[in-house]
Amino acid sequence: MITCSAPGKVYLFGEHAVVYGESAICCAVELRTTVHVNKAEEVIIESVLGSTGLDFEIHPYVSHAIEKMRQFTDIEGVAIKVESELPVGSGLGSSAAVTIATIQALNYLYKCGLSLEDIAKTGHEIEKMVQGNASPTDTYVSTMGGVVMIPQRKKLQHLKCPIIIGNTNKFSSTKELVGSVAKLRSEFPSIIDPILANIGQMSILAEKYVNESDYRTIGRLMNVNHGLLDSIGVGSTELSALVYAARHSGAISAKITGAGGGGCMVALAEDDNAISIAKAIEEAGGEAIITKNTEEGVRLE
């Protein structure tokens, strides 16, 4: 049996804008999806969603990963078991993590010899198949770990402050939210294009502050980024409640992370107030997770 795991991620800057070629800064976090693979007589995929064969409805990412890897090797039967610390549809890159961990596990099991760049590229192709229009950010960060600027693929300074994730426990569809932004953009390009460009510009401006570990300035920019995301319709009542609860309890910053519409928000904290911020998020109706940046991307366990 081969076991591989890959991390989830939070966006510091750039979600939605990155779909249109703008820059984003993304941060791998110490919440991982683990995939166990073994050769078998048939295809069996097990997860919290159930046990299936090749199934593009229930297990679309794992099923597409198997199909994609058949381009590199002869895969007839394989048993795959998925375990994850990442809630599905929460904006934490759960689909990228399961895709990347599956590809790497199959890569090891069948000795395909794929590089990390190959794995990130293949993972992005799979996300595009499932989601329609997916950015390369999630799959690249899940593969490489650390803090990464996309599309430049530039590694930035590791974040040393606590990261608090607030989960609304409200499922959000990345495909639907990306589609709603695309519709808004097609109707009001002169309004929406500058907003997306400003979100991208914020990432470029923030690169310097990330590398200098200037969390106060990073936080101010993250808060502005949240407002711009709200303006293009990807906020929600639940997310706003968690964001403002975190800010009012002393967070350096708090914003939507990922597609929005539900899912999660992210806050940066000082070393001494992470617990009180997490408590404020829970009192506002969310589920709080205190985590941190990880330098490790996909790995063989």
Automatic annotation (TrEMBL):
One Gene Ontology molecular-function label: mevalonate kinase activity
Annotated positions binding ATP: P87, V88, G89, S90, G91, L92, G93, S94, S95, A96, A97
Keyword Magnesium: yes
Start and end residues of each GHMP kinase C-terminal domain: 208-285
Coiled coil segments of this chain: none
Active site: D138
The keyword ATP-binding belongs to this UniProt entry's keyword annotation: yes
Enzyme Commission code(s) on record: 2.7.1.36
Domain GHMP kinase N-terminal, chain residue ranges per copy: 61-146
Pathway assigned to this chain's UniProt record: Isoprenoid biosynthesis; isopentenyl diphosphate biosynthesis via mevalonate pathway; isopentenyl diphosphate from (R)-mevalonate: step 1/3
Catalytic activity: (R)-mevalonate + ATP = (R)-5-phosphomevalonate + ADP + H(+)
Protein family membership: Belongs to the GHMP kinase family. Mevalonate kinase subfamily.
HAMAP family registered for this protein in UniProt: Mevalonate_kinase (MF_00217)
Protein function: Catalyzes the phosphorylation of (R)-mevalonate (MVA) to (R)-mevalonate 5-phosphate (MVAP). Functions in the mevalonate (MVA) pathway leading to isopentenyl diphosphate (IPP), a key precursor for the biosynthesis of isoprenoid compounds such as archaeal membrane lipids.
PANTHER family: MEVALONATE KINASE
Protein name (record): Mevalonate kinase
